[in-house]
């Protein structure tokens, strides 16, 4: 994501890449120092760097869904790494189940992102507020379905 | 179980809210695409994060002997699905895990029951309480955590491993009941005591035919009866010297258990006094039940720091029968126990002391004032033992690694050869 933010050719894009790079380093520091409270700030920095790098682009970036899913994956893996304790023996079925759950979540998040980006690109005139409401509604409906199934 | 939200939930919710607001302010649809995954994670977590309901039960053997392996079984039963359950069984000192893990993460489905097995080794005697058991349950995304503790756990009583004693100390006085000790008085028995002229009522089997033929009158044999004795085991629990794995109190308790077993096997009455910061006593009794009472009482023996002056006056008279043999096991570190021993001797008790030596649990400094102080301490201990011997108390030093039987033989030799010096 940092490299993607750096891939822009102007100064603003480079600044965005730098901020994203700082966020990446911050995330690594969180994992090494086992400091979970700083993970959202690191994610925020990376996201802000990406947004800044896209500042002068008028076209909606199709990769935003991947970036969003990637940010979620990075945060989840960072939290998992900090929570794991070598003194606690984790059973293999549990590790497999957690991996599958995380994979499903990230893939679903990417799909939602693609739907959102696609909807935003097609209905740009309808306004951002409506788009955001649409996303929230879609996510809320997923939550209700899962609650009923459980 | 107490349920609460984790910092992750707050972080994801804050990121979502901030992202949506930023998207509205800046007018960038990409920001919504960056935020949507975190919003999805929060929604899924809230939807799936139900309160976990489960039960836990710990079972273990109730009794064991030092060095034995014990099987412990933890049974977990879940009424609802628990996506991630961390289980930790706290173990007291003196128990070591041989097989299995005492900290484990697992997943329980709805209605599932799991048994986790642990194999422990009992390294030290004592009354050990297994647990508590700590439980921590999380939802699939780790947004909520529920923590609980199972405090009601079984107690494991580990008995000291006893040395087998071939010979023990013989008390000077006997009691009225039948036992294994040859009494000094004359009566019905096997051991030959004396001869006397026949008197009406003497049975024919008592007649000494050889003496009768030689003397011309009827002479009969007299014998010593076998009687039981009273033995009081006196454990000094004021202070101990402790090494890495063992202490003088550990040795004293093991020796006390061995002596109790040996004397009760001879049908003697055995009592116990634990003389220390906490004063405990057990009146003399016989039989296997008394042996278990003594060993159970020994399991509760511990060093409790106390500055209170304790004398033997506090001990009930029934616990210290007048003709009893008192066998004391003491490291002779505390002046109160030394004074109590001298007081017992002054009151006329038949007293022996096994000095459970603290010297192996110490290390002589290499040089300097500390080395001199250490040597003086060793000399003072020798002087103390000599002082007890001059008072008529048989004392033998018993060091870790040496046979208890050797120390007992040393005490026997003193009692056999020592005579009271009268000025």
Tell me the name of the CATH class of the largest domain in chain B.
Answer: Alpha Beta
Class computed from helices, strands and strand pairing of chain B: alpha+beta
- The fraction of residues in strands of chain B falls at 25-35%
The portion of residues assigned to helices of chain A is: over 70%
Radius of gyration of chain B from CA coordinates: 34 Å
**Overall mean pLDDT score of chain B?**
88
Choose one word for the global shape of chain B: elongated
Distance between the termini of chain B: 77 Å
Helical residue percent of chain B? 25-40%
Average pLDDT taken over every residue of chain A: 81
Give the overall shape of chain A: flat
Beta-strand segment tally of chain A: 1
* Computed Rg of chain A: 18 Å
Low-pLDDT regions of chain A: none
Number of strands of chain B: 22
Residue runs with pLDDT of under 50 for 5 or more positions of chain B: none
Describe the structure.
The complex is a heterodimer of chains A (about 150) and B (about 425). Chain A is an all-alpha fold. Chain A has one domain (about 1-150). Chain A contains six helices and one strand; from the N terminus they run H-H-H-H-E-H-H. In chain A, helix 2 runs parallel beside helix 4 and helix 4 (about 65-85) packs antiparallel against helix 5 (about 90-120). The longest helix of chain A has about 30 residues, at about 90-120. In chain B, strand 18 and strand 19 form a beta hairpin. Chain B is of the alpha+beta class and about 425 residues long. Chain B has helices spanning about 5-25, 30-50, 210-215, 250-265, 285-300, 335-345, 370-390, 405-415; strands at about 1-5, 55-60, 65, 70-80, 80-90, 95-100, 105-110, 115-120, 125-130, 135-140, 145-150, 155-160, 180, 190-195, 220-225, 225, 230-235, 270-275, 280-285, 325-330, 350-355, 395-400. Chain B has four domains: about 1-45, no CATH class; about 55-160, Immunoglobulin-like, CATH 2.60.40; about 185-225, no CATH class; about 230-415, Rossmann fold. In chain B, about 30% of the residues lie in helices and about 30% in strands. The chains are: A mainly alpha (about 150), B alpha+beta (about 425). At the A-B interface, helix 3, helix 4, strand 1, helix 5 and helix 6 of A face helix 1, helix 2, strand 5 and strand 7 of B. Strand 1 (about 90) of chain A pairs parallel with strand 7 of chain B.
């Amino acid at each position: 994501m940092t490299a993607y933010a750096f891939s822009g050719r102007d100064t603003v894009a480079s600044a965005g890449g730098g901020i994203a790079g700082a966020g990446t380093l911050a995330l690594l520091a969180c994992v090494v120092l086992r400091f979970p409270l700083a993970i959202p700030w690191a994610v925020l920095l990376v996201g802000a760097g990406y947004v800044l790098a896209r500042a002068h682009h008028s076209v909606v970036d199709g990769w935003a869904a991947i970036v969003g899913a990637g940010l979620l994956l990075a945060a989840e893996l960072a939290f998992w790494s900090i929570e794991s304790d070598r003194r606690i023996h984790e059973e293999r079925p549990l590790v497999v189940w957690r991996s599958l759950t995380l994979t499903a979540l990230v893939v679903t998040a990417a799909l939602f992102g693609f739907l959102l980006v696609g909807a935003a690109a097609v209905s740009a005139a309808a306004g951002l507020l409506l788009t955001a409401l649409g996303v929230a509604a879609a996510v809320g409906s997923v939550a209700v379905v899962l609650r009923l199934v459980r | 179980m107490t349920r609460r939200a984790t910092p992750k939930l707050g972080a994801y919710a804050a990121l979502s809210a901030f992202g949506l607001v930023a998207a509205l302010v800046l007018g960038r649809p990409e920001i919504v695409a960056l935020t949507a995954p975190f919003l999805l994670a929060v929604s899924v977590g809230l939807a799936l994060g139900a309160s976990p309901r489960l039960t836990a039960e710990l079972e273990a053997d109730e009794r064991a002997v030092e060095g034995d392996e014990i099987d412990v079984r933890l049974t977990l039963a879940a009424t609802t699905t628990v996506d991630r359950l961390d289980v930790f069984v706290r173990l007291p000192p003196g128990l070591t895990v041989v097989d299995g893990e005492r900290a484990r993460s697992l997943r329980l489905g709805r209605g599932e029951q799991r048994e986790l097995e642990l194999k422990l080794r009992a390294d030290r005697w004592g009354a050990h309480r297994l647990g508590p058991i700590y439980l921590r349950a999380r939802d699939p995304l780790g947004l909520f955590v529920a923590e609980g503790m199972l405090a009601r756990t079984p107690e494991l009583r580990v008995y000291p491993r006893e040395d087998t004693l071939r010979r023990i100390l013989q008390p000077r006085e006997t009691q009225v009941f039948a036992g294994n000790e040859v009494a000094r008085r004359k009566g019905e028995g096997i051991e030959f005591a004396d001869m006397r002229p026949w008197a009406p009522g003497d049975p024919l089997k008592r007649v000494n035919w050889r003496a009768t033929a030689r003397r011309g009158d009827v002479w009969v044999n007299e014998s010593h009866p076998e009687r039981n004795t009273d033995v009081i085991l006196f454990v000094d629990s004021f202070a101990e010297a402790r090494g890495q794995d063992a202490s003088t109190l550990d040795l004293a308790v093991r020796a006390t258990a061995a002596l109790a077993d040996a004397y009760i096997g001879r049908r003697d009455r055995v009592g116990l006094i634990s003389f220390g910061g906490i004063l405990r006593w057990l009146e003399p009794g016989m039989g296997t039940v008394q042996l278990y009472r003594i060993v159970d009482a020994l399991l509760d023996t511990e060093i409790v720091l106390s500055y209170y002056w304790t004398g033997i006056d506090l001990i009930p008279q029934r616990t210290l029968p007048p003709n009893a043999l008192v066998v004391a096991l003491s490291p002779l570190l505390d002046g109160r126990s030394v004074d109590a021993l001298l007081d017992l001797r002054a009151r006329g008790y038949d007293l022996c002391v096994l000095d459970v030596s603290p010297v192996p649990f110490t290390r002589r400094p290499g040089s300097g004032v500390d080395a001199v102080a250490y040597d003086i301490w060793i000399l003072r201990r020798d002087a103390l033992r000599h002082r007890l011997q001059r008072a008529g108390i048989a004392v033998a030093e018993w060091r870790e690694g040496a046979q208890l039987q050797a120390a007992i033989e040393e005490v026997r030799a003193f009692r056999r050869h020592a005579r009271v010096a009268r000025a």
